[in-house]
Amino acid sequence: MSEVEAGSTPSFEMTWSSTTSSGYCSQEDSDSELEQYFTARTSFIRKPHKEKKDEQIDWEKPILSQAEIEQKIKEYNSQINSNLFMSLNKDGSYTGFIKVQLKLIRPVSVPASKKAPSIQDTRKSSSRSQAVKRRTSFYLPKDTVKHLHIISRTCASEVIEALLKKFMVVDNPRKFALFERTEKDDQVYLRKLSDEEQPLHLRLLAGPSEKALSFVLKENETGEVNWDAFSMPELQNFLRILQREEEEHIRQILQKYAHCRQKMQEALATRTPG
Question: Are 161 and 110 in contact (CB under 8 A)?
């Protein structure tokens, strides 16, 4: 089974838990089709989630000795109800599975030709600096889940790149972030992992419980939109969408007041003076 080695292009295995969305739209398609799948309102306004808090749970992340790692792996494997075991390697590293839930609000961009990548393509280092002449955008299915088989040295940034490569997503990896999700006292807490953190190590420390720890891929929200991360066609589309939303909002307001004015005039017409 493939492993993701640190310092190299990640190779991985994934299992599907849902199907890919059929909501495609091209940046060269008509404006109406574009608006059907992508609005500025749904892309940039972050809706509050009352049940979630972006806070860090302070549970210890100790550095384990080789004997402690071996014991932890035995305990982990004894608690799982599937064949997603962890295994210790001769060099002291260990391999195992992590599950990542994709909770993306915005559509992702892929090459217009939806040809699946070959084995040779997956072994090549990903180069997203190359210009993509024509892109297709689509929404990933809500709460899509992927299982990745990785090595303990695999860092969070490599996990993100592996997920994007699997879907042939050409968006800048910096647009996305990997979060750890923890449930505690009927509250859900999210913490963004740094690029260097090792998800499998966190999985081993927390145990197999999804309430104790799970992983979520989300947009890399920093409080402000990083406009430099978008391409020129994307920015031009955003401007067109914003203009149309503004025009539609103005039209709705004018229509509302015109309707109120008409009702008042009708009411006045039915009354006699005095």
Answer: no
